[in-house]
Every structure is written in C-alpha cells, then in structure tokens.
Give the backbone structure.
Amino acid sequence: MWHPPADAHSRRDFMRNGFASVALLCTLGTPGTSSRRRVVTSAAMRSQARSPFTPFRRDLPLIPELLPVRRTRRRDVYDLRIREGLAEVLPGFQTPIYGYDGVYPGPTVRARRGRTVVITQHNDLDFDSNVHLHGGYVPAGHDGHPMDVIAPGGSFEYHYPNHQDAATLWYHDHAHGRTSHTLYYGLLALYVLEDERERDLDLPAGDYDIPLAIADHSFNKDGSFRYVDNIDLGFRGDTILVNGAVSPRLRVDRRKYRFRLLNASNSRSYMLRLGRGRRMVQIAADGGLLARPVARRRIPFHPAERIDLVIDFSDYRPGTELVLHNEDGEGGTVAVMRFDVGRGGGREEFRVPRRLRSLETLPAPVSDRHWDLGFGSGAWQIGGRDFDHDRIDVRPRFRTSERWSFTNNSNRVHPMHIHGFLFRVLSRSSGPVHAGERLGWKDTIGVLPQETVTVEPWFGPYNGRYVFHCHALEHADRAMMLQLEVEA
Amino acid sequence: MRKGVLAAVAATAALAGATPAYADDQTITADDGLVFTPEAVQIDVGDTVTWSFDNPTTPHNVAAKTDSPTAWATGDEGNYGANHPDVAHTFDAVGTYTFQCQVHPDMDGTVTVGNPPPDDPPPDDPPPDDDPPSSPPPTTHPTTPPPTPSADAVKPTVKSVKLKALRRAVRVRFRLSEPATVTVRVKRGRKVIKSKRVQAGAGTHSLTVRSKKLKKGRYTVEILARDASGNRSRLATKRLSVRK
C-alpha cells in the first residue's frame, strides 16, 4: 500500500501557509478580473516574491518534442525510458517524478498519418508499467491493456500505425490498479497526430500550435508532489499546473493561436472560461477536427478529454492580460493560466474555415447496451460489475456500431473512456448535446451525476480485447473498468 | 474547524468536574454529505455509540484511525459502501478514540470515554491538532511508492555543434552525452527570436529550427541540455551568419 511520506506531519503547516498566501493574492485581484491595473503594495510584492504558488509568475514551459532515433521511409523509431526524474515545478524546488525519459510532462511525439511510429519503452522503475496511447487506433496487443505490462527492467516495442485522422492524442501509464499514482507522479505525454487534410486548412502551426497539459496537484514542504487518496471524489489538488508550471503566463502575439488542451488531472473536471466569457473557437475534440468550428464561452472539461481551441488575440489591445479561469475551482484551482497580449500584429489573412471536415456516416447500430455507473460494495462498478481480467463483459461485432448508454447513479462525474475505438455522442438526458461534442469523434465522455449519456462507438479498425473504464483514475483503479472483445 | 471542535470538547471536558457531561449511549449520523454529525461525543465506560448511515449514493464506512490515541477497531474497516448498515460499538475502557470514513479521510470524529462518576478527572488531552494525514483506505492496490530518484551528479555535455543556414531556418547538429531535454535558442543580439525544446538520447542529433525572423544577419545559437536529475550542461554557443 502507498503511504504518505513520513514527515507529512510538518508539511501540513506549510500547505496551510501556502494556501493562505495564494488566497491572499487571489483577493489582491488576479483571477476573476481582467486585472489591467493590479493593486501593487510592498506586502503583496513580498508575498509574491515568497510564494512559489503565486499564479502567472512563470512562463509557460515548452514541452520538449521527442527526437526519433531513426527515420526510415515509412516509420519513425523512438526510444524512451520510463524512469524516475526531477522536475522543477516550483521555482527553487526539485520535485521527484516518474516520467518518460524522466521528464514531466513527458516529451511530445509528433506523428504523421500513414507513417508508423515505433516506440521502444524501457521500464526502469521497480514495478510494472505499460503505455496506453489514449484515443489511438492501435492493435489490441499494443494498446496498453492493464494486464499487458512491462516488467521492471524489461522493454516493449509499441507499434502505432497512425491510420486515423489528425488528432491530439496522449500516452500514459495504464498498469493495473496503479494508474492514479503513476499519472499523478508524471507518466503522461502528448502525441500529436497530423495529416494532409488538416495541413491544407492552414490552421496555426509551429510556434502558434501549443499543447497545454492541465492537471491539479498538491505539494509537500520539500516541493514533492503530495497525493491524498480519495476513492469517492478522486484526488483533488489545490494548485493547477499547466505543462508542469503553476498557473503560468504566456506572451502571445496579436494573431490566432491553436491550443491543444489536455485534461491530465486524475479526477478533476473543469469549467473553462476565458476572461469574462470571451470567445474561444473549438476546432477539434478527442478524435480530431469537428465538422465546423464551434464558438464557446464556457467549456466543461473532464479528465482525459482533449479540446483544440483557436483563440484570436488580435481582438485584444496590446498589454491585455487574459486569464483562463476554471469556474468550478476555488482558491488555487481557479486561475489556469494567463495570456499576455504583446504589441504589434493585428493583421492576419487567415480565417478559420467554415467547414473543417465532413463527418463519416455510421452504419445503423446493431445493438443497444446499457451500463449503470455507481458504487457497489467496496468498489466502483459498471453495470454492477467490478473489473475482472478473466472475464469478457461484452462482445461487439467487428466493424459494426452500437448504441451504448451510461447512466450515472452516483454524485460524481464519470468520464467514460473506451480503448481502441472512437464514438459519437448521441444524447444527454440533462439537455441537448453541445455542438463541440456532437460534431466530432470522441473517446472520453463526462457522464454527470444522475445523467444518462448515449454514445455510438464504431468497433473498428482493429479487433481483439480492450477495456473501457471511468477515467477518474481513483475510480478506475478501484475496479470501474470492464473488458470488451471484438471478434473478427 | 476541527481545532474549534476539539477546543469545545476540551472545554466541555474541563467542566465535567462540575456537571456530569458524560451522556448515555450516543448516535452519530452520516448521510451523502462528507461529515459525521456530531463529530465528537462523550460517553461513559460501558456505553454504546451507534453510527447510523443514510447514504443512498455516497459510499461511507466508519473505521478506527490508525493513529487513534487509544488503539481500537470498529469492525467496519475496509467495508465501505452506499446504503451502509449501522455500526455499533460498546466502549469498555477510558480513552480517546478517533474514527474516520476510509473513503473520505477528512470525514472524522472523536469518541471520548470517561468513567461514570462525575468527579473523575477529565480524559486525557485531546489528540493533537497536527495529527498526520490519515492513511489511505485499504485497497487491493499494488504497491506504488512515490518516486525517489537516486542522485546523479554527472552533467550532460553538448559537443560538436555544427550549424548550417537554410532558407528562413537553421539546421543544428550536436552530440549529446546522455539522454536529456535540449533547449536550442536562436538569438539576434540579446533577443531570442526562436527557441525549441526537444527530448533526445545520447548520440548525435540534427534538428531544424525554423523562423520567418531568420533573415540576413548574424545570430547566436545556444544549446543547453538538462538531464532527468536536473543537471545542466554548460551552455554551448555558436555564431551563425545568414546571408540572404
């Protein structure tokens, strides 16, 4: 069993002080206001200088891109070590992490449609690990099923065919029963898949295409991550990290940017709002581009979901400071990050096209299935069942679609994720499905308390054994996961 | 909040000498919220406390805290769930007994057990406010300790830096001594016009830094490597002239 560090005792005092200073600064006026003119007192400056938790003090870290060890005509070959490392999350502190190559967040893989990516993952930890490419069309043997693990000291060559549309995917640990810990301590990274069709749209690219991995954390006095287990609510941190920095800032030019948002939190759902409700244009969801861009002012954002946004900073005057808020947060979990609009620019030919893609029509569903989500005896359950790796819970037919409805009988959000397949969202009992979810492919869907959500997965292009589960990881690790097997 | 409750317990306990504050059997309730009500009760030796649950959706249980001043067990440890049955425990010895819901470690409370005669001394000091965070509930989890990276003092090195000017781009080649995060910055004067960060293994690498700002002029390229233990290489710099 995992134990909190022995000196957690004295750390609590610090945490309390930490909260107090963050709370103090919040009252001084950063989040919640567009803060063009901030109150600056010497006391505020001193406390800002002292607290590593003060939002908007660090620049947004660039996540490194992984360089291939070899490129051939049809494949890119990478080599990664799953190992321990130190990250500088709080200025002046070294935070022990698990990381891909010891980096948090792990290095981003940039893949091209049709070019196979081969990643040899070496497990340098002293417990089992494996890698799940979340949202990827991946043959079952390479999907990172919780029982397919890499033993300590071993390695595995994951093959990702990349026969799917451009999308913001991510990879993370998925070893049975420990994902809540390993993800929290850093085993996650982005996998950006690009294709020609998307390239032809001339969306912001290069420096203007920025991944943002958002996660909540807490800290001990020595700067290490603090994890408190809570199987009901899931882990809730008191600080938001974006790309591994506390609520950072990003200096932006007056033009359009593409942001690839990943909710890399264990269990926290967000309600994102830019400034006082400024326009953000959603262009993609988990499985790639939407049929058309969708303007949004508030975005619910559940664990493991991805949302690609285009934000046009030429709408703002130079010097504007725009805060991306989490409306559902409190204290240190309100301010996600800040965009500081630079000078100049403001003239740009590019417009987001009105049509981004045409969505495939699915064949009529061949089956209706219903899953109740709730807490059984001592474990979270799907359809009244706990995870059992010796049992196949559902056998959809290969290359068919089905209607799956999830009914949440609990008071917690359950972000339901199906491995290996993508789905469309058909209905929500709580109201209409937002265009941002309806007009594209998804692999994870937040099922709200007491809500029924119906989705239509398509069981292709690969057959075999996969899992589907709740992506609130404290729930998934406590058995909220079932197995499906698609037979050819 | 808890301090207040404990202070109240202590204050009531102090009064115990004057008025018999130790009550008979007590009931503590819990519903779908995340608190026990009341959080603190006082009883006499031989009395029974019943934890009564009305929780149709939120799983709860009641377990003795592992750091309870008086060690004990409710018998309900590890047995959490919704619609939880009532749990009763009869206390046969003086002491301070702390309990919690294992699903919600912050949902906790105290049973203070005294002797029936009112002139008995009040119970021992309440548990310190700074008790360490309660241990996580028992699970079938595999062991996953927090990371404790071993010290590595070897700095990565960046050598054999070669630059080649391309059209609005520069190709950078370098040799790296160990896997590291490499930051490549292209500067004109002091101004960074482009920076790129990559993750690379030991060996020779080549990457292209593109920027529309790479026009005719003189540039400095800086390369810095940082390994997983946070060791930084010396800053490798090289100059570059772009002619068109």
Notes: The radius of gyration of chain B is 33 Å. Residues 1-21, 120-140 of chain B have pLDDT under 50 and may be disordered. The CA atoms of residues 215 and 244 of chain B lie 6 Å apart. The helical segments of chain B are 2-15.
